User: Which sequence fits this backbone?
């Protein structure tokens, strides 16, 4: 006998919604109040990090129900939003049921320069004394250690919300916290008083002053065709200008490569600018930006026109809210001036200015890749606290709204970069130099070096010197010359013991190498490099092993985790470096694996402090004469 059966699946009701957690009406309302109603295909994917910032600013954290709603409005899965939100240090995903985070976040920099100035005891005191709670039981103040905040010359540096506290003392920080909370300023996205102070500083070059000094003349000339693209490229090449973010690739050659790739592929290139200087000890980009933003913008416009870039994306670190406001104001001033000349062409001609062509280039909106609708030609994007995004391809991933994980190469970004386009990527300072080189010529720049080197270099100097800060010096200046001639000598009570020539990545050298010229390619024979020119000076009271451990802890914290050699190697190395006597053989093995097999420069350069301590400071790590040492080991 045949018995008919009914499948259990047949009795189920049709599903009227997707599986998983669904957005609540209240959460959707909050998200739409921030970003408006989403188009049919959702908000632009590349704006995910910008939207996360907006939610984070509004609620002092990321409520989970709002992340679900944001995923819905962007037509992304919740896991795609969560994996980005949990990648960046400045985002905190709040527990279920928690609608807001603490009112104010106090970040105490624990990088090497600040540690040398007492940051760790300061952090402990602030964590113990700033435990205030609101009437609802929610913490009002959150105190946390933070990697380098880009204020090493002000060590120890503390960031109270957006308010920096230089040479911070516990009482000064507590007073700043109280003033911010009492005045309600913690609710401000930008601190107007700080922005006004920056714009009115005596050393600030505003738009009118910039024009009075001949600003934007070269950008106008390129737009008008009176300054040939080839002439610009020749000047850069003749001057020997190289990338100043760390890699040191020749700028003129990079422009030509991107030009050639764009022509071969038939794709208009893009420009991405790294202003995310997260290398410990580095602050020169911040220093330049808060003094003369228009010089940078002119260099940017020259580069865009010569290379043929359709749009530019400026990636500015989140720790620089005031500098972002300064840059936004500079862009507004430039746009207003260009609009005036476009609307009054006869007046523009009468004053002899060639603004019309530049106005057409800058003000014409573009169909920016990855974005719907028409957008400005220059876009500002906000970092979220990830050192790895200083790596060019990781920065591009972040601009596209993704986790900042470096890409495998080839293809290189000069061929397949931002939104799949050939991309010219530059550090802020590289473009900052362009107008001055065009004004004074390549010969002027090349003639400035010392000890057989050519050009000028800006060094960020911190540590045991009397006058830390940004120092513009001839290329090839030695560490001893840098300290004695430009920094007022060693700080009172300190004698030179060692130095880091290139931030966390550049190695640690002894005082016996203080007469080696500081420039590209001069330090590699000694096991280091100049990198971003972040010099941290050590005195006799400091230990190189402590500096190396601080750097390895930093690398372990900042590794994106994508590749095993870096993710595991940095943690394992840091653990071994806590021992009184270092296991040199194992550390050398780890170093070789990280250098050979890591995807990007973070893992490849992380062993440099270890290797140089073993080589130049063996007694500090228990390797006395007669103990086993690496083959190239030296004496302390």
Assistant:
């Amino acid at each position: 006998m045949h018995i008919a059966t009914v499948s259990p699946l047949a009795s189920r009701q049709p599903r009227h919604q997707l599986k998983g957690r669904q957005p609540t009406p209240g959460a959707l309302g909050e998200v739409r109040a921030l970003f408006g109603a989403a188009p049919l295909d959702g908000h632009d994917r590349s704006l995910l990090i910008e939207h996360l910032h907006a939610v984070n600013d509004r609620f002092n954290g990321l409520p989970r129900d709002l992340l679900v709603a944001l995923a819905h409005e962007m037509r992304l899965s919740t896991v795609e939003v969560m994996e980005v939100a949990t990648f960046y240090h400045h985002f905190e995903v709040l527990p279920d049921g928690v609608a807001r985070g603490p009112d104010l976040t106090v970040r105490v920099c624990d990088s090497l320069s600040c540690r040398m100035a007492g940051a760790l005891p300061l952090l402990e005191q602030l964590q113990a004394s700033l435990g205030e709670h609101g009437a609802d039981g929610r913490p009002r103040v959150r105190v946390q250690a933070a990697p380098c905040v880009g204020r090493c010359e002000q060590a120890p540096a503390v960031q109270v919300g957006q308010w920096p506290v230089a040479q911070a003392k516990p009482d000064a920080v507590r007073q700043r916290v109280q003033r911010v909370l009492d005045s309600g300023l913690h609710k401000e996205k930008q601190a107007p008083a700080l922005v006004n102070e920056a714009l009115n500083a005596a050393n600030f070059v505003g738009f009118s002053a910039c024009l009075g000094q001949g600003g934007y003349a070269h950008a106008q000339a390129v737009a008008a065709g009176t300054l040939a693209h080839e002439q610009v490229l020749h000047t850069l090449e003749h001057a020997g200008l190289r990338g100043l973010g760390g890699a040191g690739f020749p700028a003129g050659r990079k422009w030509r490569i991107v030009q050639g790739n764009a022509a071969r592929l038939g794709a208009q290139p893009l420009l991405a600018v790294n202003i995310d200087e997260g290398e410990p000890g580095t602050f020169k980009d911040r220093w330049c930006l808060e003094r003369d933003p228009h010089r940078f913008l002119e260099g940017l416009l020259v580069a865009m026109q010569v290379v043929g870039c359709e749009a530019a994306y400026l990636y500015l670190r989140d720790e620089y809210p005031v500098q972002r406001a300064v840059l936004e104001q500079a862009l507004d001033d430039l746009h207003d001036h260009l609009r005036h000349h476009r609307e009054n062409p006869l007046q523009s001609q009468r004053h002899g200015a060639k603004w019309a062509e530049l106005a057409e280039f800058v003000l014409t909106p573009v169909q920016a890749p990855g974005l719907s609708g028409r957008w400005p030609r220059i876009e500002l994007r906000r970092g979220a606290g990830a050192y790895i995004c200083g790596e060019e391809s990781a920065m591009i991933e972040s601009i596209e709204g993704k986790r900042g994980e470096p890409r495998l190469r080839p293809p290189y970004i000069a061929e397949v970069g931002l939104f799949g386009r050939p991309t010219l990527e530059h550090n802020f300072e590289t473009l900052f130099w362009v107008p001055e080189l065009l004004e004074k010529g390549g010969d002027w720049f090349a003639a400035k070096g010392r000890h057989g080197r050519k050009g000028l270099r800006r060094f960020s100097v911190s540590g045991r010197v009397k006058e830390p800060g940004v120092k513009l010096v001839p290329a090839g200046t030695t560490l001893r010359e840098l300290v004695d001639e430009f920094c007022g000598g060693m700080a009172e009570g300190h004698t030179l013991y060692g130095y880091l020539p290139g931030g966390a990545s550049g190695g640690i050298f002894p005082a016996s190498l203080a007469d080696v010229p500081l420039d590209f390619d001069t330090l590699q024979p000694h096991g280091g490099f100049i990198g971003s020119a972040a010099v941290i000076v050590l005195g006799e009271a400091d230990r190189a092993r402590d500096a190396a451990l601080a750097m390895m802890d930093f690398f372990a914290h900042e590794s994106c985790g994508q590749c095993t050699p870096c993710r595991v190697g940095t943690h394992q190395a840091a653990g071994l470096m806590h021992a009184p006597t270092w296991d040199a053989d194992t550390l050398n093995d780890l170093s070789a694996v990280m250098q050979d097999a890591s995807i990007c420069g973070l893992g490849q350069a992380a062993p440099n402090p270890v290797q140089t301590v073993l080589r130049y400071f063996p007694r500090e790590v228990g390797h006395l004469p007669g103990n086993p040492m690496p083959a190239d080991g030296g004496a302390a």
Q: What stands out?
A: The chain is about 40% helix and 10% strand. Residues 626-636 have pLDDT under 50 and may be disordered. The CA atoms of residues 444 and 593 lie 44 Å apart. The first strand starts at residue 104 and ends at 109.
